[in-house]
Fold this protein.
Amino acid sequence: MGAGHAHKLYRHGHSPVHGLPPHTKLAAVFAFVVVVVSTPREAMWAFGVYAVLLGAAAYVACVPAGFLLRRLLIEVLFVAFAVLMPFVAEGERVDVLGMSLSVNGLWGAWNVLAKGTLGVAASVLLAATTELRELLLGLQRLKLPPLLVQIASFMIRYGDVITDEMRRMRIARESRGFEAKGVRHWGVLAKSAGALFIRSYERGERVHLAMISRGYAGSMPVIDEVTASRAQWTYALALPCAALAVCLLGWAL
């Protein structure tokens, strides 16, 4: 898979969660999200227990609450959508603080907020304890289609290359006195975007030719064989198993 690739969501550490094989963490997070989504929205207490479970996992992983909360800002759009639901949904109405709100809309907003927040928090916790390279190895270990893994790998590696190219082009424009201030400068920016596309396409062709010259035949060599012991699987699946017990109680009560 090539050299390691750090990302902004990753938090370096040596916790037990950091040391778990990536495919066990991927499977655990996927199972946890499935359990959360399967929980009835009326079992509000269950979502509080899920939050406590995630908090415990973050504590074991040595991920600070502030770090986790700042990364949760990515769901702001979902929050805005949820806030609008009680106003636009139809059905039985109820007065709350002088406003007429839909009962179905209130339940729908709660459902989106609770399940969405827990899912995003679990994903952020996974990203904070697993490097991108390890995630790709985990997906490969879980038998995801190799072509999809390769596409994801190339996107990760060359995303930074393209970003750095954009930065150099911006510096070149600014060194020549250019500063975008209005619509009349859109033409220059459009030409820059076109030049960036051409450079990226040409770079991709060169990379492909270099790979073929080195024996690439449609699959990447597996350098690290990632395995997991039964104890590691048990440790990783403790979170979704506990969540499953809560979910079953939510349906029973």
Q: What stands out?
A: Strands lie at 93-96, 99-102. The two ends are 48 Å apart (CA to CA). Residues 48 and 173 are 52 Å apart (CA to CA). DSSP finds ten helices and two strands in the chain.
